[in-house]
From TrEMBL:
Locations listed in the record: Membrane
Alphabetic keyword roster: Membrane, Transmembrane, Transmembrane helix
Major localisation: membrane
This protein's record includes keyword Phosphoprotein: no
GO biological process: ERAD pathway
Domain of life: Eukaryota
Name the record gives this protein: Ancient ubiquitous protein 1-like
Record-level GO cellular component terms: endoplasmic reticulum membrane
Gene: LOC115458944
Transmembrane intervals: 20-53
Amino acid sequence: MEAPTAERLFDLRRFPSDGVLLLLLFLYTPVGLCLLILRIFIGVHIFLVSCALPDNLIRRFIMRVMCSVLGLCVKQNDPRLRDSAVKVYISNHITHFDHNIINLLTSCNTPVSKGASGFVCWARGFMELSAMGNHLELIEHLKQYSSQGYSLPLLLFPEEETTNGRAGLLKFSSWQFSILDVVQPVALQAQRPFIAVSLADSSWITELLWTFFVPFTVFQVRY
């Protein structure tokens, strides 16, 4: 089978080329702007609620319902296919919020050692790590973390970049598979009307605002 080209793996333009869809988007824009402003205020309240509630099944249910108000609709196939004993989840990567979406279904931690740190890292739902000199140090640190019986599973993205999730996958880096012998594969897909789900090299704050603008984004999680 021929490998997909880079142009098929990434969405390079946010808006549709179809004239009818562009007209519908233009007519929807006033509604979208109102939703954007309203969801920003609602999102702040949801963030505060998420900080106040303990991490358990009730919290995840409440957060999943509240996130649907923000237009984030999450579906999953048979959850019994997920092995609750596995400590490492391996997923494809399609948006800046994949880890938040999966956390609505099951508690897990996504480590990050680069990029934003401190409050921003914590507020976005990442597990911040100190700077590691190389992958061997990172693997050893995550092995120690996973060996602790009370630790949450790790959610890792071996593609290390987001794609559109439609045409194929980027080549996986291998170090994520060196932490433990058994991993739980997770497949993510996302769809939304009018515009692309994410663009290459777009910042997380830009993608968040567009997520609030569109009527909804549907995430499908498969194990």
